[in-house]
Each structure stands twice: as structure tokens, then as C-alpha cells.
Design goal:
This protein is α+β, with helices and mostly antiparallel strands. It has 2 domains: 19-143, Jelly Rolls, CATH 2.60.120; 148-235, Winged helix-like DNA-binding domain superfamily/Winged helix DNA-binding domain (Arc Repressor Mutant, subunit A), CATH 1.10.10. 42% of the residues lie in helices and 26% in strands. The chain is built from 8 helices and 10 strands. Strands 1, 2, 3, 4, 5 and 6 form a 6-stranded antiparallel β-sheet that branches. Helix 6 crosses helix 7 (191-203). It is globular, with a radius of gyration of 19 Å. The two termini are 33 Å apart. It comes from Paenibacillus anaericanus. One of its GO terms (cellular component) is cytosol. This is Crp/Fnr family transcriptional regulator.
Length: 238
């Protein structure tokens, strides 16, 4: 029965788990619905759970004392979300906001610890999952800090294309409506500067808009601007 459920579920960032270990996760999950606008957790909450997204979308944000929001990650179907520190009591350093009605499998830390202790192969897969998160964080900080705001914007557009992109000939449609405010929050820039940078890219014929969605016309130009290292898609994602 679990294997049938497994086949019907998306894998996302949990593809590093074997079929058997993914089924072990499924067995421990407690299903819960989260409406749009609610939160899986807040910054400062104890990190004693992981959340598997069976349906919906979640964004992870970090807020400054002035109330400015930085979008760290965006997760969708098949992704597991949370700050996992097995065997240690820690607090979340970011907030997880539900941006689409979501169906979530909740995994308690105590159940996770039991699986890690009982199954060495599960522990290895879990270490792989944590390693993917570390690499994702490292590459994101590189993009934000090393090549200025234009580099950060181009990297974000590439990540969006890997996450939501649909290839049409030589172009890639980012099949999600991403506002300029969203982009500014993703790279820590003002909305006005994002407007200017997008306008410059349109003038260079690197991108265009179609029904309010971004179409990338020259991926190589974006890669050159952000000094792209051609990371695998599991790392180069939003």
C-alpha cells in the first residue's frame, strides 16, 4: 500500500531518499491541511518537526528589525521543509509562509530520530538531504554577495527557470507569476532597482513578458552576468 502511495507522490528535494526510506517517511507522517496565508512555523519557534509538501507552495523568509523581508527559498510539491537538527533542541531562524492551499505531511523529530537510529541507510539518505540544503544555501549566498544586484537577479531568474520553467524552442517560460516585489525580496534590493535591471535585460533582448510571466530568451547572457557555475538543478533552484 505504501509503495502505491509513494508512486503517486512527487519527490522534489526528497529524491535523494531510496524508495524504501521514502516509504519510512510516509509511514511516520501525520497529514494536515494548511490554508493560504497560514504558517508552518515562525522564526523563533522550536524546530521539532519536518514538513513534506504533498500539494501547495511555501516560501521561507527572514525578516529584519525594520520589517524588510528576504525570501530565502520557495518550496513546492514533493519538497521537505524544515530546519532539521536531530538530537539537539534548536529554534527556526526563518519563517515558513503558505502561499497556496497546501496538504502537508508532518514528521515529528522524535520519529525522525528513531528512524536514524534504527536504519543506517536512512541516516545516510537523510545526510544527503541535509547536504543538498547546505549546498543550496552556499550557492545562494555566493550569488547574493559576489556579483552585485545584477548578478543576483540573473541567478534568481535562472533558478526560477529551473524550478518553474517550460522550454518552448529557444526560450524558457517561467510558468509562475513572479512580481517585481517578489524578485526584490529574493535578492535584497529595492523594487525600483529591480525594475531598472529588468528593463535593461529586456533592451538587451535577454527576456520578455508573456501574459504577465517572464520568458527567458537568452539564458547564456544571464549565466555570463552571474558567472554561472552550472550547478545541477537540485542545487540551482529557487
Amino acid at each position: 500500500m505504501n509503495e502505491i502511495m509513494n508512486a503517486a507522490l512527487p519527490r522534489g528535494n526528497t529524491s535523494c531518499f531510496s524508495e524504501q526510506n521514502f516509504n519510512r517517511l510516509l509511514v511516520t507522517m501525520k497529514e494536515k491541511a494548511y490554508p493560504e496565508g497560514t504558517h508552518l512555523f515562525w522564526e523563533g519557534d522550536f524546530s521539532d518537526k519536518l514538513f513534506y509538501l504533498k500539494r501547495g507552495r511555501v516560501k521561507l523568509t527572514k525578516s529584519t528589525d525594520e520589517g524588510k523581508e528576504l525570501i530565502l527559498y520557495m518550496y513546492g510539491r514533493g519538497d521537505m521543509v524544515g530546519q532539521a537538527d536531530p538530537f539537539f533542541s534548536s529554534k527556526h531562524s526563518f519563517t515558513a509562509e503558505v502561499i497556496e492551499d497546501s496538504e502537508v505531511g508532518v514528521i515529528e523529530q522524535k520519529d525522525l530520530e528513531i528512524m536514524i537510529c534504527q536504519h543506517c541507510d536512512f541516516a545516510i539518505d537523510f545526510m544527503k538531504w541535509m547536504g543538498i540544503h547546505h549546498r543550496l544555501t552556499q550557492t545562494k549566498f555566493r550569488d547574493l554577495m559576489m556579483y552585485g544586484k545584477p548578478g543576483a537577479l540573473c541567478s534568481t531568474l535562472i533558478r526560477l527557470s529551473n524550478t518553474y520553467g517550460e522550454k518552448h524552442g529557444d526560450t524558457i517560460l517561467i510558468n509562475k507569476k513572479i512580481t517585481h516585489t517578489d524578485l526584490s525580496n529574493m535578492i535584497g534590493a529595492t523594487r525600483e532597482s529591480v525594475n531598472r535591471m529588468l528593463s535593461d535585460l529586456r533592451k538587451k533582448d535577454a527576456l520578455e513578458y508573456e501574459n504577465g510571466m517572464i520568458v527567458i530568451k537568452d539564458l547564456v547572457m544571464l549565466q555570463d552576468i552571474c558567472h554561472c557555475e552550472l550547478c545541477p538543478n537540485e542545487i540551482c533552484r529557487i
